[in-house]
Amino acid sequence: MKNKNKNDFGFGTQIRKSPFFKATVQWGAKDFSVYNHMYIPRDFGDPEENFWNLINKAILCDVSVERQVEITGPDAEKFVQFLTPRDISQCAVGQCKYIILTDNNGGILNDPVLLRLGKNHFWLSLADSDILLWVKGIAINSNMNINICEPDVSPLQLQGPKSREIINALFGESVSQLRYYWFIELNHEGIPLIVSRTGWSSELGYEIFLRDGSQGTKLWEIIMKAGEPFGLKPGHTSTIRRIEGGMLSYHADMNSENNPFEMNLERLVNLDMKTKFIGKMALSNIKLNGISKKQIGLIIDTKPLNSPNKEFWSIEIDEQIVGKVTSAVYSPRLKENIALAMIDINFAHIGTSLKVHIDGSKEKAKIVQIPFYDPKKQKAKI
Q: Given CA atoms 286, 248, 102, 32 in this order, what sign does their dihedral have?
C-alpha cells in the first residue's frame, strides 16, 4: 500500500495501528502491510540501504505486530508445556526461549519467542497467525486453572552492532549486558518496559516491549534521540538479512502443513518428555517413518533479483517439479541471489543442481548449506 498523501494509509478501522504508528509516519515510513491484523511499516526507503544501516550501525523497527498471548494462573507452566514440543522445564524467570506450537498432526502453527515473567506468568511473542484464538480454544477443554489474554504490550526492535551502545546510553550497563535470550523489567522516565536480548535480524539486538500503549510516541522519540550519536536510523525488518541468516518467516517458509523435522527444527522437539503435549504422537510417528520433503538453501545463478519473490517459484530437476522456492532475495554483501526452499527429500543434497522457474524462464540453481552468512549466529550472540 503506497502512501499517496501524507498519512493516507487506507486499510480501514478494522486494522489496528500500533502505539508507534504516528511516530513511524513522521520518521518517514512510506509503505505498510498487515500482520496479525495490524499495520506494520515495510518501507523507509531503499531496502538495501536499510540492510546496510542494520549491519553497520543500528535500526529501530516497529514490530508491535508481534502480539503477546499472556498465560497466567496456577497451571500456567503445565499449559504452556502442553502447547509446545520443546521442554520448557528449565526456562528460568527472566529467560526467553524460541519455541514452536504444533497441532495434533505435528504441523507448525507458530514459532513464537516464549518469555517467562514469573513462576506462573508467560508471554508468547507471536509470528503472524491467530494463536490467541487457538490457545483460548485449547484452554476451554484443558481442565487447567489458567487465565489467557492479550496484554497491552507493543515491542520495538533495536538491532545492529551499535545497539548495545544505544541501550547502554538509554538504560545503563546492567541492561546493555543482558545475556542472549534473557530480559529485564524496568521503568524508564515513567514508561514501563521489558528489554530482552532477542530480535529477528541475525544481528546483535534487543527488543523493547512497551507496556503502556499511550506512551508509544514518547518512547520512540527517546530511543531515536539516544541513538542519534551512534547513527541509529528508523527501519524495517530486513528480508535480505533474515534470509542470509536462514531465519524462517511463518506463512512464507512454513505453515501448518510443515512439521519441525522438515524445517530443521528437530532441536525444538523433545519426544522423551513424560509430559504430554499437542502433536506428540504424530511427531513420534514422523520421526520413526521419516519425512518426504525438507527445507534447503539455494544459490540462484541469474542476474540480481530486483525484489524478494512475491510468489512461490517451482523447482525442477530433469523436467520434474520437485519443490518450491519460499523466500528469495539478492544479497548485496554476498553478491548472490539466495533463497530458502522446500524440496523432495530425495533431491535434498548439498551441491545438487536444479532449475528454478522465475517469470517464465528457467534459471540454474544449486543447493547449498544454510544459513548463508554467519552460520553459527555469532553476531547475534556477541
A: negative
If phi > 0 it is left, if psi is from -120 to 50 it is alpha, else beta; for residue 302 that is: beta
Cell 532475495 found at: 329
Domain finish residue from 219, 242, 265: 242
For the segment 156-205, what is each residue's pLDDT rounded down to a tens digit? 999 999 999 999 999 999 999 999 999 999 999 999 999 999 999 999 99
Q: Which structural domain range is residue 356 located in? A: 292-373
Task: Tell me, yes or no, whether 16 lies in a domain.
Answer: no
Rounded to an integer, what distance in angstroms lies between the CA atom of residue 234 and that of residue 63?
Answer: 12
Task: Judge if 208 and 234 occupy the same domain.
Answer: yes
Residue 268 lies in a domain: no
Residue 196 and residue 209 in contact, taking contact as beta carbons nearer than 8 Å: yes
Do residue 320 and residue 177 come from a single domain?
no
Answer yes or no: is 257 within a domain.
no
Q: Is the residue at 88 inside a domain?
A: yes
82 and 126 together in one domain: yes
Q: What is the pLDDT of residues 265-295, one digit of tens each?
A: 999 999 999 999 999 999 999 999 999 999 9
pLDDT in tens, 356-382: 999 999 999 999 999 999 998 999 999
Q: Is the pTM above the cut of 0.70?
A: yes
Domain count within the chain: 3
- Any alpha helices (H) in the chain, and if so which ranges? 21-26, 47-56, 76-83, 131-140, 163-171, 173-176, 216-227, 239-244, 280-289, 378-381
Last residue of a domain, one of 225, 242, 259: 242
CA distances from 54 to 181, 291, 327 (A): 20, 36, 20
Give yes or no for residue 24 having a pLDDT over 60.
yes
Those residues with Cβ within 8 angstroms of residue 305's Cβ, 6 or more apart along the chain or in another chain: 328, 329, 330, 337
